Write a sequence for this structure.
């Protein structure tokens, strides 16, 4: 996994989790779902890049 893609995946996961937790605490369900989607996208990106690395080696 390239360093840039790894950083992007980690950032999406962290920001998504923070948004989701803060939105749930404030009672804003729509925003919480958007944060969960961002977190899932970060996890998917990390999984994709990890698979590419395993395939190359």
């Amino acid at each position: 996994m390239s360093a840039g893609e790894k950083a992007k995946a980690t950032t999406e996961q962290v920001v998504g989790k923070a948004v989701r937790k803060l939105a749930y605490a404030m009672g804003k369900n729509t925003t919480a779902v958007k944060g969960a989607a961002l977190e899932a996208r970060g996890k998917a990106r990390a999984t994709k890049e990890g698979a590419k690395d395993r395939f190359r080696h």
